[in-house]
Specification:
The complex is a heterodimer. By secondary structure, chain A is of the alpha/beta class. Helix content of chain A is about 65%, strand content about 10%. Chain A has helices at about 1-20, 25-45, 60-75, 85-95, 110-115, 130-160, 180-210, 215-220, 225-255, 265-290, 290-310, 320-330, 335-345, 350-380; strands at about 50-55, 75-85, 100-105, 120-125, 165-175. The two termini of chain A are about 25 Å apart. Chain B is α/β, with parallel strands linked by helices. The longest helix of chain B has 26 residues, at about 125-150. The N and C termini of chain B lie far apart (about 85 Å). The chains are: A alpha/beta, B alpha/beta. At the A-B interface, helix 6, strand 5, helix 7, helix 11 and helix 13 of A face helix 2, helix 4, helix 5, strand 4 and helix 6 of B.
Chain lengths: ~375, ~150
C-alpha cells in the first residue's frame, strides 16, 4: 500500500511537471475557462425588453397616435423610428435597426369610429425565435388591452353600464431571479459546460499522448500497476477541475453578482462526482482513440455537445423532442446543471437534490469501471 | 509551386486519414449530428409548460380561467395544490415551471367591477421559460378579459 502511494505520487508529480513545462496547456486549463465564462455570459442573453420597434402610421389621426402611444409607453417595445411607407419596414429589418414593425393602415380611425373591428399589422423579425415569440405575445396582449379600453369608451357613449364588469390583472412574479438577469441563469450552467470541456478534453488526450510520444512502453515496464497509473493520471486533473470551479464561482459572484443561496457542500459534492464521471469519460476516449486528433474530436462529441445542448444549461430540456430527452440522460451534464442551478439560485441542498447526486454517483462509478476495463485490455495486448 | 508536390501531399494526407477509420467516420458524423442537435434543441417551440394551479376561489370564473390556460397549448396543468405554500417544493424541484394563483374572492371582485389580481409565478432560473411563459400568461389573461367583455356587451 505504501509503495503504491509512492508510485501514484510519482505519476502526479510527473503530470504536474508536464503542465509546468507546457505553458500552452496551462493556458488552456486556466485562461480558457475565464474567457469562455466572460464570452458566454456577455454574449448569450434571453432577456427580451426594449425591442426596437418601427411604427408605420398610414392613418395619421388622433386615434392612431393614441394607439402608438401605447407602444411608446410600454417598457417592452422601444419605438425607434416612425415611417410613412412599407418599404421602410424592409429597410429597418434588413439593417437590424428594428425587430418589430407596427403598421396602422389608412382608415384605422374611421373604421373604429364606425364601430367595426380595425386591423393593425404587427410584423415580427423571426430570425430570433425567442424574441419573436415574446414580442408576439406582448403585442397581442397590448392590442387586447387597447380594444378593451375602446369598448369601454364606446359603451360609455352608448350609455351602457359596464361598471359591473371587472378585469383580471396579471401580477407576474419571477422566482429565484426576480430581475431576470441572464447571467444568474447562465453562469451556474456555464460552470458545468466549462468543467466538462476541460476535464474530458484533457484526460482524453493524456494517455494518447503517452502512446504518441512513445513513453507508453516506459510506463508499462515500470512497476506501476494499472489502477495506480489511472489514479495518478486523474488526481492532477481533479485538482485542476476544482481550481477551475472555484475560479468560475468566484468570478461569477464578484463580477456578475450571481447569488449562492444554497448549501455549498452539496455543490462541492456534486462537482466532485461530476468531475469523476467526466474524467472517466475522458479515459474511455483515451483508451479507444488511436490518435490525438480522434481523441480531440471524440471529446468534443461526448463532452461539449451534450453539455452545451442537452444539459438544460441554456435550452429547456422539457421542451426538446422526447428522444433527445432520453439521450440527455446518457450524459452526466444534465444532472449537474440541475444541481448547480438548484444550489446557486433555488437555495437547494442535499434534501432536494439527492436524486441527481445519486445519478451522478452511479455514472461516475460506471465510467471509471468501463475505463479501467478498456484500458486494462489494451495494455494486456 | 509544383502541382506534383502538392498532389503528393494531398495523397499523403488522405492515406493518413484512411489509416484512422474512426477519424473518418467521426468527421462525417459530426457535422450531421451537430446540425440535427442544434436544429432540434435551439429552435424549439416553448409549449406545454408544466403548470401548477392554486385555485382559492373555486368558482366558475376560476375554472374558466384554468380552462383558458390549459386550452392555450402553452401550459399543461399538472398539479393543483391546495395552498400557495405547496408551490415552493414544486418549483424548487423544477416539477412545475409556472404557477397560477387565483385568490379567494376573484369572482366577487369581478362582479363588483373591481380589478382582480391574478398571481402568476414563473421559474426565473430558466430565463427562456420565464420570458416566454409570462408573455403567454399575460396574453391569455388579456384574451380572457376581452372575451368577458364581449359576452356582457
Amino acid at each position: 500500500m505504501r509503495s503504491a502511494l509512492v508510485r501514484i505520487g510519482a505519476i502526479v508529480r510527473k503530470e504536474f511537471r508536464h503542465l509546468a513545462r507546457d505553458p500552452r496547456m496551462l493556458l488552456a486549463v486556466v485562461i480558457t475557462p475565464v474567457i469562455q465564462l466572460l464570452l458566454f455570459a456577455y454574449a448569450i442573453s434571453f432577456d427580451v425588453e426594449n425591442v426596437p420597434t418601427i411604427v408605420i402610421d398610414l392613418d395619421q389621426t388622433q386615434t392612431s397616435r393614441t394607439y402608438v402611444e401605447r407602444y411608446e409607453a410600454s417598457t417592452f417595445f422601444d419605438v425607434v423610428a416612425h415611417g410613412g411607407t412599407m418599404a421602410q419596414v424592409d429597410a429597418a429589418f434588413d439593417a437590424n435597426s428594428a425587430r418589430v414593425a407596427v403598421v396602422i393602415p389608412a382608415g384605422f380611425a374611421r373604421t373604429l369610429a364606425g364601430g367595426e373591428a380595425a386591423q393593425v399589422a404587427v410584423l415580427i423579425d423571426g430570425s430570433e425565435p425567442t424574441a419573436a415569440k415574446v414580442s408576439q405575445a406582448y403585442s397581442v396582449a397590448l392590442n387586447q388591452l387597447y380594444s378593451q379600453q375602446l369598448t369601454r369608451q364606446w359603451a360609455d357613449q352608448q350609455g351602457l353600464d359596464l361598471s359591473s364588469l371587472g378585469t383580471l390583472e396579471p401580477r407576474i412574479r419571477t422566482w429565484y431571479n426576480p430581475e431576470r438577469k441572464s447571467s444568474d441563469f447562465l453562469i451556474p450552467g456555464l460552470m458545468v459546460v466549462i468543467l466538462a470541456i476541460v476535464t474530458v478534453q484533457q484526460t482524453a488526450v493524456t494517455l494518447v499522448r503517452e502512446r504518441d510520444q512513445g513513453t507508453q512502453e516506459q510506463l508499462e515496464v515500470s512497476p506501476m500497476r494499472q489502477i495506480e497509473l489511472m489514479i495518478g493520471k486523474l488526481l492532477p486533473w481533479t485538482l485542476i477541475a476544482f481550481a477551475d470551479m472555484a475560479l468560475i464561482t468566484g468570478l461569477g459572484r464578484s463580477i456578475f453578482g450571481v447569488p449562492l443561496r444554497g448549501d455549498f457542500w452539496t455543490l462541492a459534492l456534486g462537482s466532485a462526482l461530476f468531475v469523476f464521471a467526466s474524467l472517466g469519460m475522458g479515459l474511455v476516449i483515451s483508451a479507444i482513440a488511436p490518435s490525438l486528433d480522434t481523441a480531440n474530436i471524440l471529446a468534443m462529441l461526448i463532452a461539449f455537445l451534450p453539455a452545451f445542448l442537452l444539459s438544460g444549461f441554456a435550452f429547456a430540456l422539457d421542451q426538446i423532442p422526447v428522444f433527445l430527452q432520453w439521450v440527455s440522460y446518457l450524459f452526466p451534464a444534465r444532472f449537474m446543471v440541475t444541481i448547480s442551478r438548484g444550489v446557486f439560485l433555488k437555495g437547494a441542498g442535499f434534501m432536494e437534490l439527492w436524486p441527481e447526486l445519486a445519478a451522478l454517483t452511479v455514472y461516475a462509478l460506471v465510467m471509471l469501471v468501463i475505463s479501467s476495463v478498456l484500458y486494462g485490455r489494451r495494455s494486456a495486448r | 509551386m509544383s502541382a506534383r508536390r502538392i498532389r503528393l501531399l494531398i495523397w499523403k494526407e488522405f492515406t493518413q486519414l484512411r489509416r484512422d477509420p474512426l477519424l473518418i467516420r467521426l468527421l462525417l458524423v459530426m457535422p450531421v449530428l451537430q446540425l440535427i442537435l442544434f436544429g432540434y434543441v435551439v429552435a424549439v417551440d416553448i409549449r406545454n409548460l408544466a403548470t401548477a394551479v392554486v385555485d382559492l376561489d373555486q368558482t366558475s370564473t376560476s375554472r374558466k380561467l384554468e380552462a383558458a390556460f390549459s386550452g392555450s397549448g402553452y401550459f399543461t396543468i399538472t398539479h393543483t395544490p391546495a395552498t400557495e405554500d405547496d408551490l415552493r417544493p414544486l418549483l424548487d424541484r423544477g416539477t412545475v415551471k409556472v404557477a397560477l394563483v387565483i385568490p379567494e374572492g376573484t369572482q366577487d371582485r369581478l362582479d363588483r367591477g373591481e380589478t382582480a389580481p391574478i398571481g402568476i409565478i414563473v421559474d426565473g432560473s430558466d430565463s427562456q421559460i420565464s420570458a416566454v411563459g409570462s408573455g403567454y400568461a399575460s396574453q391569455i389573461i388579456a384574451q380572457f378579459n376581452a372575451d368577458r367583455m364581449t359576452e356582457q356587451g
